[in-house]
Structures are given as structure tokens and as C-alpha cells.
Amino acid sequence: DFVCIPILLLHIFCRVLYAHKQKVTYNEHLESLKDIHKKYENPEYYNWVITQKTDGKIVGMINLKPNHYNDSVEFNYATDNRYWGNGYMTETLKRIIDFALKELKVNRIQGGCVVENKASKRVMEKCNMHYEGILKKYIKLQDGHHDMFMFSLTN
What we know:
Layout: E1 2-5, H1 8-20, H2 26-40, E2 46-52, E3 58-67, E4 72-79, H3 88-102, E5 108-114, H4 118-126, E6 130-141, E7 144-154
Parallel strand pairs: 4-5
Antiparallel strand pairs: 1-2, 2-3, 3-4, 5-7, 6-7
């Protein structure tokens, strides 16, 4: 059991730890905080932290970025590796998809993961998302550019 709550600082914590998959310096952490703070100034940028109901421990985060022109949203998520394999992200993504389609009334929801992240690919497959293909050298991480699996679901 878990809960999704919208909180700025917890999302920042998750992004820094999980998106880079390696330790970051204090200055790198501060730079990432500045970037995220700008997104929070946009009231239509949705962010949630995933916590366990029993003890409130953070297990991950998920966010949605709307594209009003296309009536779509794009999601990003990350799970603390101590909680991998417990189904938290699959259940969370299912709820976020439902929220986007029913509450935001979008036509399309999309997201992806680096091709090396087989578990994240499986999360999207379990959420009945449709595999669209590979975006070449789409994601830039600290170790360089990576190909990305793209998935979507339409209303």
C-alpha cells in the first residue's frame, strides 16, 4: 500500500537520486533544484511523491507535463532502488493514467525509458501502454546520450 502526495522537496530528492543513478555533488544538486523550482511555478505541472501508507517512507516519484496544444501529457517517474520489484510504480502509473484520461481529459499520455531499463519498460507494458518504437540518442544522462523506448496510450 502506498500514497501519492504532491510535494516539491521530496520530488527534488527523488529526481537527483534516481535520474542520474550515481552520486551528485552538492553544487550539482543545487543546480537541479533551480531547474525544478521553475517547473513548480507552472500550476499545470503535476508532481507526486509516492510514499508507503504504513510508515510514510518515500518509494519514488511521478510527474505529468501537459501539452495543451496536442491535448496530451508526458510522464516521468523514478523508484528508489530499495523498493524495486514491489509493484509500486505499476500501480502508481495505472492511477496516473486514469487521472490523466478522466480528470485532465487528454487524448494521449506518453512516456518512455532508456533501453537499458528493462524493468521500467515492463511497468509500461503492464499498464497496457502501446510500444511505439525507439527514439535514438534521445535522453542525455551524465554518461552520455541514450536511446529511449517510447510508449503511449490514447483515449
